[in-house]
Amino acid sequence: MRILSRRPRAAGDASPDPSAAGPRDSIVVSPVGAVNGFAVLDAVAALPVGTWRYLWEPEGVRHLGPMAQDWHAAFGFNPDDTRIPVVDGLGVSLVCIQALQRHVEDLRAEVAVLREAVAGTPSGAGR
To answer: Where is this region: Disordered (predicted)?
Structure first.
């Protein structure tokens, strides 16, 4: 079973550096548009996640994740609602991590402002 397939390299190209082709591999992908990370994060937060098993697997086997139909309803990236493409799962995860990082940065800035305000308040005032 092949899980990851790679584009064949040109003869003599021994470079393992994936950035050698430039910032994006425009030969095989075409950017479609920007993504609102906070909207994706909200969709992931609402996504039902549970344990499940394929019908052909033994009773004791469990996987953790959303059902493909729920994933498709939340994102609709492809017409197939029976599979979750690994690349889409990775992309959603990375966008959510970026949105959470921006949220953490906003909260840190807010805490810094509040700390400055508290530090400038005479002791006992405002209590």
So the answer is: 1-25
